[in-house]
Each structure stands twice: as structure tokens, then as C-alpha cells.
Amino acid sequence: MEIPNGTLDKFHLGVSADGQTCMMVFVDEDQRTIRCVADFSEFNAFIANLNRAAAEMSRRRQDEGDEEAEQGPACGTLNVAFAEFQPSPTDAYIEGALVGDAGQIVGIRMAPEVACQLTKAMLMAAAPASSC
Questions:
Q1: In angstroms, rounded to a whole number, what is the distance separating the alpha carbons of residues 120 and 132?
Q2: pTM for the structure as a whole
Q3: How far is the C-alpha of 49 from the C-alpha of 63, rounded, in Å?
Q4: Which of 7, 30, 87, 121 is packed most tightly, with the most Cβ within 10 A?
Q5: What is the pLDDT of residues 76-122, one digit of tens each?
Q6: Rounded to an integer, what distance in angstroms lies between the CA atom of residue 118 and that of residue 82?
Q7: Residue-wise pLDDT tens digits, 21-34
Q8: Residue 75 phi, psi dihedral angles, 5° rounding
Q9: CA distances from 49 to 54, 62, 106, 111 (A)
């Protein structure tokens, strides 16, 4: 079977001795390489992007018949399947995204006070995991 042009052939990952950075090396079928050095937050964002892409790939593979069943609740509501947040690199805000079970992505940017209010409201609404 012939591999399409531009296909990733190998991927290597290494972590520095101090654990502060990692190096990713991507090798295509023509043995061309791309090397990237990333700190923890950059690597974490890379993994989050891979998760989002995988979810989107899965969503697109579903049959058209499944799409109607997958629509979920009324317009304006999102069934959250994945969430990722991190401190903003430029200010005190928190940035991230919510990913719906049908592959929708909603970007979020909020002040820390709002994040605290949101966390409290969600904890108050959630059923207890176990009783003491």
C-alpha cells in the first residue's frame, strides 16, 4: 500500500533531565524532520489540540443517520465531553475551551473571580461522589 505524500512516518519525544522542557521530532516518509522544543504549558496545549482533532475526526466518521441522534439538547446547550484551561500567558485571565460530544468547540476566557464562581456553582450542582 502506498503512503500518501506528507504522511508522518515517525514521532520521537524526549524530556529534558530537569523536566522543564521536551523535544518533539516529527519525521515524514522522505526522512525530513521538524524539531520542536516545548515547555510544559506548550506541550500540554499540543496534547489538548491532538485530543480535539481526534474528537473531530471521530465525529466526521459517523454516519449521517447518527447525526440526528447526536444533535443533543435544544439550541444553545452544549453537552461537554472535554475541557481544557490554563492561565493566559499575557495577563491574569484563564483561557481554554469546551468541546462538545459532537465536536463543537467553544473558546472561553474569564477572570479568576468568574472561574471561582463557576467552580463553586458547578460543585454545588453536582451530586456527591460518595457519602462519608
A1: 20
A2: 0.42
A3: 24
A4: 87
A5: 677 888 888 888 889 989 998 888 887 788 888 898 888 888 888 88
A6: 16
A7: 999 888 888 888 88
A8: -50, 140
A9: 9, 20, 13, 23
Cell digits of residue 41: 504549558
Neighbours of 55 (CB within 10 A): 19
- Report residue 16 as a C-alpha cell: 529534558
Q: Which three cell numbers stand for residue 129?
A: 461522589
For the chain, the three-class secondary structure string (H helix, E strand, C coil) is: CCCCCCCEEEEEEEECCCCCEEEEEEEECCCCEEEEEEEHHHHHHHHHHHHHHHHHHHHHHCCHHHHHHHCCCCCCCCCEEEEEEEECCCCCCEEEEEEECCCCEEEEEECHHHHHHHHHHHHHHCCCCCCC
